Amino acid sequence: MFTTPAKPADPHRVRNTVLIAIGAAVIVATYLYLAIGQPTEVAESSTSQASLIAIAGYVIGAVLLAAGSIHRLPTATIAMIPVAIALNIVVGQIVAVLGLPVYVDSIGTVLVSALAGPAAGVVTGILTNVIWGLTLSPIALPFAVVQVVIGVLAGYAARMGMFRRFYLAPVAGAITGIVAAMISAPISAFIFGGATGGGTGAIVGAFQAMGQSLLGATTLQGLLSDPLDKAITFTIVVLILAALPARFLQRFPFVRQYRVFGKAPVTPRSSGA
């Protein structure tokens, strides 16, 4: 009896998988450093030792993720990422100045994830908060890991067809917001004392006045603000996508392979999954 020899693993695929795994591990390690070490100087300066460690961790993680997934990304995606980063920062900064109890700083991340997959969304999100933290608001830097969560969940929501119907997008956004709230609460409590600016600080103060601990107050504030914020963000994105020409949307391999918008699939090509 003859057996067919096993097909050898593609060395490029193995290398890319390893790069993505290491990048993810570096990002998680950076988050744990911030959440457990609680370096409060991050809130004071983007050039402090803790800030530089956070910057290095998130940038290295983003570079490794990009190196492991860049072969899957079409030119249109690579060109779109800087625009998405600018969109995140500009809208997020405006909302922060207005003092609203939401953020709306991840529209670009969700948009890229829906069109090009989780990996592209993660790279967009990390670079958003690193650039934002270095230029305008050091507070943004430690929360880069939240953008990672948003990018991943938005990409998989797109794969599941959550952007095919208007009413499904805010549901996916609310679920993403719950996860984001649980991830961001320790950073908000232990590094910033619950005061991260905007209108969210008042909500934290209100929960503390009701007898909640600092971590409990920031968690409850996150569970109140984040699902609403991400539901709004996902709704804005689905409206943007609905306004784009179908021909443009179908230029993205991720959209075609996973029938993100319910179109008939074509022969699968590499995507940003």
TrEMBL record:
It comes from the Bacteria. The chain crosses the membrane at residues 17-36, 48-67, 79-104, 110-132, 139-158, 164-183, 231-249. Gene3D superfamilies: 1.10.1760.20. Keywords: Membrane, Transmembrane, Transmembrane helix. This is Energy-coupling factor transport system substrate-specific component.
